[in-house]
């Protein structure tokens, strides 16, 4: 897993696939039994204490001492990190808790606790922000605010690693993603590339005259394209370049009225890669997802640690 | 240093720590008030009253003796065989006036020199209780609510974090115990002045009291450290409190009953309170009444075993090394989940 500086990186995987364990290990909460990890150029956990002031993180559900107020909670963290008190007010404003900062955390909703958790991670104005399920419990407005916040932070130069199951959000926010299943990486790279790698290459074709569809199907099949004929359009598979289709059809004096590549979204790619799409009549168990033993076959060449 | 200051702030902000401190101080105030109300200063009036009470007691004894002698003589004259009277009724006589001591009739008074040493034991016990419970809660609640994990994300040096927390706890306890002990000295001195006596105090006595007071503070620090270490081991306040209750109920009461049933010699030597008292009073002498050490006069003296404050210090030292060592080891080795 590699995260480029200044990017928003999505870290995805089914329940129990090891996302939180990976983040905990990265942050020194779990002892690794092998492998190498580095944050901002520092190998961890060996030099974690040097890099920790530059890393803000929330891991799993937000947990705070329930009888302290949000302001007390942040103030104590700021004290431990030698930060000025003024920073507490700044992050409270940023996450929208300014007016409720004097209330005890035990009175907070899950969404408010989540905001407080994000505030605590932002408190030290980190270079790297690691957020595990930051949208948990947030209302729709809060999710949108969180998205804008992530974008703004990224534009300001902060690197953000985001673990979430809200794949629509990930697709909107993230520059790149890593998808894991049962502790192994199944895909990684820029979001567009991951989508492109796992798109079916399907193209929908409509012609001016529906009656020309059989002739068109024959011509395309002859050219090696897999064609499915429908009532008013053709579905093509295995098309590298849509321009090839227009050329073949034009040679037959057939003119297209619509040539549309069928887009895939991150959710369908995720379900396909992890094999966690629901099957009617079956109850999938938590650890039922794609198992990759040894080196990941779907990993692009040269994509290992330090690439 | 910022972490230490922050942990001190955290300790001071903890509501449980505040309530326990207030509760402990309230108990001490009640004890001091009870001492004030249950003692009186001995002056000429009290001495005169005691003399009169002793006289009255003596006169009652004289009346009783005369009545019994008369009853005895009447019974003898009637030829009744009563074995509870002596053969010679003249032997029934009242006690001499000197045998009825006037001091028996004096009201309770607080003699600072004689009694203050004992009064340092409840102070130490309350401070130790507050230290143990607050120490357990201080770290137990942090583990339980995820506060420790949050802190470790800021300060990934686990042992430094745990030891800094312990340092803050002990500093906070000292900040409570030192003024509380000073106030205890002052309030008992005041009670002695108003409701007793401070006569006979020498620099040696003062020194002895000061050292006992310091030993009480050390006892509280030991209790706080053990409570802290137990709660950190179990990652929950209940671990320490449950452990303490288990030790007291099973380990002490149960063990005490078992040892006495097995007629083990010096059973108290196996019980923790004996060592706490020995720590405060320098020595506790246990007696075995089933043994007979004959003296040259032919009397039977029980066998004795002295538990000294040195024994206690070894026990406390081993306890701290074991519990705190285990807490540090698990802090270093176990995953934070």
UniProtKB/TrEMBL annotation, chain B:
<feature type="transmembrane region" description="Helical">
    <location>
        <begin position="162"/>
        <end position="186"/>
    </location>
</feature>
<protein>
    <recommendedName>
        <fullName>ABC-type transport system involved in multi-copper enzyme maturation, permease component</fullName>
    </recommendedName>
</protein>
<feature type="transmembrane region" description="Helical">
    <location>
        <begin position="119"/>
        <end position="141"/>
    </location>
</feature>
<keyword id="KW-0472">Membrane</keyword>
<dbReference type="GO" id="GO:0005886">
    <property type="term" value="C:plasma membrane"/>
</dbReference>
<keyword id="KW-0812">Transmembrane</keyword>
<feature type="transmembrane region" description="Helical">
    <location>
        <begin position="314"/>
        <end position="331"/>
    </location>
</feature>
<keyword id="KW-1133">Transmembrane helix</keyword>
<feature type="transmembrane region" description="Helical">
    <location>
        <begin position="206"/>
        <end position="231"/>
    </location>
</feature>
<feature type="transmembrane region" description="Helical">
    <location>
        <begin position="16"/>
        <end position="37"/>
    </location>
</feature>
<dbReference type="GO" id="GO:0140359">
    <property type="term" value="F:ABC-type transporter activity"/>
</dbReference>
<feature type="transmembrane region" description="Helical">
    <location>
        <begin position="238"/>
        <end position="262"/>
    </location>
</feature>
């Amino acid at each position: 897993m590699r995260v480029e500086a200044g990017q928003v990186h999505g870290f995805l995987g089914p329940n129990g696939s090891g996302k939180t364990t990976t983040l905990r290990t990265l942050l020194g909460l779990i002892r690794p039994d092998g492998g190498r990890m580095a944050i901002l150029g520092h190998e961890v956990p060996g030099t974690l204490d040097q890099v920790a002031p530059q890393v803000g993180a929330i891991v799993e559900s937000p947990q705070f001492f329930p009888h302290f107020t949000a302001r007390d909670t942040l103030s104590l963290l700021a004290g431990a990190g030698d930060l000025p008190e003024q920073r507490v007010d700044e992050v409270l404003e940023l996450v929208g808790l300014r007016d409720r900062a004097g209330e005890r955390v035990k009175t907070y909703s899950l969404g408010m606790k989540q905001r407080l958790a994000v505030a605590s991670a932002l408190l030290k104005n980190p270079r790297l922000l690691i957020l595990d399920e930051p949208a948990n419990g947030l209302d729709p407005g809060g999710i949108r605010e969180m998205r804008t916040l992530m974008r703004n932070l990224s534009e300001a130069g902060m690197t953000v690693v985001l673990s979430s199951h809200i794949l629509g959000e990930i697709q909107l926010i993230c520059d790149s993603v890593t998808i894991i299943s049962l502790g192994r990486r199944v895909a990684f790279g820029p979001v567009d590339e991951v989508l492109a790698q796992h798109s079916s290459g399907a193209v929908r074709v409509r012609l001016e005259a529906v009656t020309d569809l059989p002739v068109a199907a024959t011509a395309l099949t002859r050219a090696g394209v897999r064609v499915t004929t429908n009532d008013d359009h053709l579905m093509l598979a295995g098309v590298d370049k849509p321009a090839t289709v227009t050329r073949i059809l034009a040679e037959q004096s057939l003119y297209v009225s619509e040539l549309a590549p069928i887009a895939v979204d991150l959710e369908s790619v995720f379900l396909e890669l992890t094999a966690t799409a629901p099957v009617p009549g079956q109850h999938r168990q938590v650890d039922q997802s794609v198992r990759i033993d040894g080196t990941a076959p779907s990993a692009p060449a040269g994509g290992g640690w330090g690439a | 240093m910022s972490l230490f200051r922050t942990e001190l702030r955290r300790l001071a902000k903890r509501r449980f720590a505040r309530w326990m401190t207030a509760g402990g101080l309230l108990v001490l105030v009640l004890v001091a008030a009870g001492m004030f109300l249950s003692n009186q200063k001995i002056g000429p009036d009290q001495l005169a009253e005691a003399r009169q009470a002793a006289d009255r007691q003596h006169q009652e004894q004289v009346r009783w003796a005369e009545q019994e002698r008369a009853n005895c003589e009447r019974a003898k004259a009637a030829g009744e065989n009563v074995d509870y009277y002596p053969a010679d009724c003249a032997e029934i006589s009242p006690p001499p006036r000197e045998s009825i001591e006037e001091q028996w009739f004096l009201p309770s008074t607080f003699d600072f020199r004689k009694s203050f040493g004992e009064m340092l034991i409840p102070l130490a016990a309350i401070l130790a209780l507050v230290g143990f419970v607050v120490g357990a809660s201080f770290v137990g609640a942090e583990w339980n609510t995820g506060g420790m994990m949050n802190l470790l994300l800021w300060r990934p040096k686990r042992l430094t974090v745990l030891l800094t927390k312990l340092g803050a706890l002990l500093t906070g306890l000292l900040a409570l115990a030192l003024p509380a002990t000073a106030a205890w000295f002052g309030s008992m001195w005041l009670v002695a002045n108003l409701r007793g006596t401070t006569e006979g105090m020498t620099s040696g006595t003062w020194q002895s009291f000061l050292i006992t007071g310091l030993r009480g503070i050390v006892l509280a620090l030991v209790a706080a450290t053990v409570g802290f270490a137990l709660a950190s081991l179990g990652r929950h306040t209940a671990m320490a409190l449950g452990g303490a209750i288990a030790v007291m109920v099973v380990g002490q009461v149960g063990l005490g009953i078992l040892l006495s049933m097995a007629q083990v010699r010096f059973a108290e030597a196996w019980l923790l309170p004996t060592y706490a008292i020995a720590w405060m009073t320098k020595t506790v002498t246990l007696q075995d009444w089933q043994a007979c050490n004959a003296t040259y006069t032919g009397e039977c003296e029980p066998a004795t075993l002295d538990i000294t404050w040195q024994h206690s210090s070894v026990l406390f030292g081993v306890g701290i090394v074991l519990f705190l060592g285990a807490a540090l080891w698990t802090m270093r080795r176990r995953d934070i989940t």
